[in-house]
Design goal:
- The chain is mostly helical and 372 residues long.
- It contains 20 helices and no strands.
- Among the domains are: 114 residues, Serine Threonine Protein Phosphatase 5, Tetratricopeptide repeat, CATH 1.25.40.10; 72 residues, Tetratricopeptide repeat domain (Serine Threonine Protein Phosphatase 5, Tetratricopeptide repeat, Alpha Horseshoe).
- 74% of the residues lie in helices and 0% in strands.
- Helix 1 packs across helix 2, helix 6 packs antiparallel against helix 7 and helix 10 runs antiparallel to helix 11.
Length: 372
């Protein structure tokens, strides 16, 4: 028994300093903060938040940020606001999030100014106020905070809280894009592609799409694939086009999935493979892409890459047609007129022909003329 007790005592004697060390370190860091050096304690809070060099502990991070925030430290107030906003280390509380973000924003902390503006725009923890949101985005953007520059650009682009101004939008997109923000780089590509605020320049558009695409942005990868497929700003290259469509498609981008399906359907840049085409059409259609619904319907109608199933084809055409897909509307008109996959129904045929004709579909207009 004495040997066992001695062993237990030895374990406790060795373990006790290890358990007390973090508390002693935090006490020392708090003392340093109280003496005007808050940075080491703030860094420790960040370490706990991200689990860098220590076990991730949101509760400990929250306590550190709260200690510094109550002492008036703007970075900690901002971090505390985000923790309340996200519900990490504390129960989610949008009102408290807004309270602390506003405190930091008023001290000129750019990150907090952006997040406070975002809370105002979305009405989280306070009444929605777009005018105030724009004010705080601008304050943050003028300090160089890239996300605020992007959002300010979007506001000018979409007339959200300000009068629409494409030139001002392009200015803020460029500032954020020059800092490497991929969403802003995509938007700069669109600016050059549209040619609204600047002279249209497909080469410049492709340049910005590539910068964002190389960072892994799925929208940019889709746009770059489309540029290669059309020869916009570069020689047409279906192999490169399929490559970028695939990268975006594998990230779940519906338009890219549809276009990759088309590439396999036609053999553009890849070996023609209708089974693969159906696979990608299906993924895009499941996300609501109407063009993919129509093409998938054609695949089922004729049994291309999949077992023929006319009722499934009709179902897909209806889903696409109800969402305004003109070719699906015309196809339904034909099927109901001819009784293919559905009972012959002239009234239904005319209904769908009329909808397609209203969108200017030439064959639907001809079909309507023949029925009258």
């Amino acid at each position: 028994m004495k040997k066992i007790l001695a062993a237990v005592f030895l374990i406790l004697a060795v373990a006790a300093p290890a358990h007390s060390q973090p508390a002693d370190e935090l006490a020392a860091l708090k003392a340093a903060a109280d003496q005007g050096n808050p940075s080491p304690l703030m860094e420790k809070g960040i370490s706990y938040y991200y689990g860098e060099g220590v076990r991730q502990d949101y509760g400990q991070a929250f306590e550190i940020f709260k200690y510094l925030a109550e002492a008036g430290q703007a970075p900690a107030q901002s971090a505390l606001g985000k923790m309340y906003d996200e519900g990490r280390g504390v129960a989610q509380d949008p009102a408290q999030a807004a309270f602390w973000l506003k405190k930091a924003a008023k001290q000129g902390f750019a990150r907090a100014q952006f997040h406070y503006g975002l809370a105002l725009e979305q009405g989280r923890g306070m009444t929605k106020n777009l005018t105030e949101a724009i004010k705080w985005y601008r304050k943050s953007a003028e300090q160089g905070f890239a996300m605020a520059q992007l959002y300010l650009g979007i506001s000018y682009d979409t007339a959200d809280g300000v009068e629409r101004d494409p030139v001002e939008a392009a200015k803020w997109y460029r500032r954020a894009a020059d800092q490497g923000l991929s969403d802003a780089q995509v938007n700069m590509g669109v600016v050059y592609w549209r040619g609204e605020a600047v002279e249209q320049d497909m080469v410049q558009a492709a340049k910005w799409f590539r910068r964002a695409a190389e960072q892994g942005d799925p929208q940019a990868r889709f746009y770059l694939g489309r540029a290669y497929s059309r020869g916009d700003g570069m020689p047409r290259d279906y192999v490169e086009s399929a490559k970028w469509f695939r990268l975006a498609a594998e990230q779940g981008h519906a338009d890219a999935q549809y276009h990759l399906g088309v590439a396999y359907d036609r053999g553009d840049g890849v070996r023609q493979n209708q089974v693969e085409a159906v696979k990608w059409y299906t993924l895009a259609a499941d996300q609501g892409d109407v063009d993919a619904m129509y093409n998938l319907g054609i695949s089922y109608l004729y049994g291309e890459g999949v077992r023929q199933d006319r009722s499934r084809a009709v179902s897909l055409f209806i889903k696409a047609a109800e969402r305004g897909e003109v070719d699906a509307q015309y196809a339904l008109g034909e099927l109901y007129r001819d009784g293919e996959g559905v009972p012959r129904n002239q009234a239904e045929a005319e209904k769908w022909f009329k909808m397609a004709a209203a969108q200017g579909h030439a064959e639907a207009l001809q079909a309507m003329a023949q029925t009258h």
